[in-house]
Write a structure and sequence with these properties.
By secondary structure, the chain is an alpha+beta fold. It is built from 6 helices and 10 strands, in the order ααββαβββααββαβββ. Strands 1, 2, 3, 4 and 5 form a 5-stranded antiparallel β-sheet that branches. The longest helix is centred in the N-terminal third of the chain and has 18 residues, at about 25-45. The chain starts with a helix and ends with a strand.
C-alpha cells in the first residue's frame, strides 16, 4: 500500500470494539496477509491473521462484540526488541486495515484469551497484543485531511517536545501525526528533543511503554523522511 494511504489513515483510525456480524472480503484478507508476511520477513516477527478465532469469546472481553478476525502480534520470546517491533510493525497493519475501510483495536495480550489454540502461538513465541478487526457498527470516517475527532484528548506538540523552541517545520509537522498515535490508556509518554540539528526520542521504562514507543515512532516516520533505530533513546536518521 502507498505511504500516502497509510498516512491518510492516521486521521481516520479509531479504536473499534463492536463489529457487524459480517465477514471481511477475501480480497482484503489476502492483502493484509501479504503485508503481514512481508513485514514478518523484514522484522523477524511472526504476526498472523486468524479468522474465526475464539480469543475474544470470554468474560473479560465483554466490551467486544462480533470479533471474527484477529491479528496475533507476536514474535520470538528471545528477541530483545520484541515489544517495540510489535508496536511499530503492528501499527502499519492497523493503518493498512483502516485504509481498507476496516475498524481495529489494539488489545494487550492479558486482556483476551491469548492462550487460545486458534492464535497459533508456538513454545518459543510470545504474543504481545491482539488486533481484532472488521466492520465497525459505527462505520468509519470519510475524512483524510483532518483528525476525525478534534475533541480527542491528546498532548500538545509542545508537550511532546519538552519545551524545545525553534524546531524546524518538518519536525512540528510530523508531530501532528504523533498526537494521534494510539498508546496504552492514551498515556502518550514519548518525549522528543531537538538540539544541534538532531531529533531524539525516548520513553520511560514501563509495562507497555516499548509497544507505545514503536507505534509512536512509526507515526513520526510516516510523516517525515527518515527512520529511528530501535531502542530508547534513539536519534532520528533524516534522509
Amino acid at each position: 500500500m502507498e505511504k500516502k494511504d497509510l498516512y491518510n489513515a492516521i486521521w481516520k483510525r479509531k479504536s473499534v470494539r463492536k463489529y457487524l456480524d459480517k465477514h471481511v472480503e477475501k480480497s482484503k484478507l489476502d492483502q493484509l496477509r501479504r503485508s503481514i508476511s512481508s513485514l514478518n520477513e523484514e522484522s523477524g516477527l511472526t504476526m498472523e491473521l486468524i479468522e474465526d478465532s475464539d480469543a475474544f469469546n470470554s468474560i473479560k472481553t465483554f466490551m467486544f462484540k462480533n470479533v471474527r478476525s484477529v491479528i496475533a502480534v507476536k514474535g520470538r520470546t528471545d528477541d530483545p526488541d520484541l515489544q517495540e517491533k510489535c508496536g511499530y510493525y503492528g501499527e502499519e497493519i492497523v493503518l493498512e486495515a483502516t485504509a481498507l475501510g476496516l475498524g481495529t483495536c489494539w488489545v494487550a495480550a492479558w486482556s483476551f484469551n491469548y492462550k487460545s489454540a486458534s492464535l497459533n502461538v508456538k513454545d518459543d513465541e510470545t504474543i504481545i497484543c491482539g488486533i481484532p478487526f472488521g466492520y465497525g457498527t459505527e462505520g468509519m470516517s470519510e475524512s483524510t485531511t483532518v483528525p476525525m475527532n478534534p475533541h480527542r484528548k491528546t498532548k500538545s506538540v509542545s508537550d511532546f517536545l519538552g519545551g524545545n523552541a525553534n524546531v524546524p517545520e518538518w519536525v512540528t509537522s510530523a508531530m501532528k501525526s504523533v498526537q494521534f498515535a494510539p498508546t496504552s490508556w492514551n498515556s502518550q509518554k514519548t518525549r522528543f528533543s531537538y538540539a544541534d540539528d538532531k531529533l531524539s526520542a525516548e520513553i520511560p521504562e514501563g509495562r507497555f511503554t516499548m509497544i507505545d514507543f514503536g507505534i509512536t515512532k512509526y507515526h513520526f516516520e510516516i510523516a517525515a523522511e527518515g527512520k529511528f533505530p530501535l531502542g530508547s533513546p534513539s536519534v532520528f536518521e533524516k534522509h
